[in-house]
Amino acid sequence: MLRVEHLRIGDLTPLSFEVAAGECLAVEGPSGAGKTRLLRAIADLDPAPGQVFLDGAERNEMSASAWRRNVRFCAAEPAWWTETPRSAFPADTAPARLARLLHSLGLEESLLDRPVALLSTGERQRLALARALIDEPQVLLLDEPTAALDAQNAALLDELIKYHMLSQKSVILVSHDPKQIERLAHARLLLPKPAGTPATGERAA
Q: Which pLDDT tens digit goes with each residue over 152-170?
């Protein structure tokens, strides 16, 4: 379980909420409300006052690298520091597991050895998700994961997210697609504009 206590993002009222194992929390709100900043703060990529716990352990009790192995942020526009995608995967990655993961996202293995600069936006986004999932983090923080995908590939990604939750992993999702939120989310966190009313959580219908 991921538990957030009194986490302060910008001018928002401090946020407190939980995401159980096997569940998805959708974070909603207007542009500029702080959705991406919230995900980055939970992943310990940006400093933010407050506490975040994973299965009872507070993030400051772990090294930054250990926390980020378990609580993984996947950006809407993922960055790449390698010439080809293959180099971004751990050296000890099992080839069969990687092949299955790519297949589940509708990707050819040959893309692993293609220069990142020659890949489409959608290919880079799906490869980044594969990179995020390959070592099975406990919590997946997804920022607009289908923004660059067509309907067919978005459906494949939804199925992969559901499988991740069936494995008792938690997901926090930021999405512009209300239908995707309806399909995946067990609960919602509503962020107002910084000058608005406090954020509230509610169970999804």
A: 999 999 999 999 999 999 9
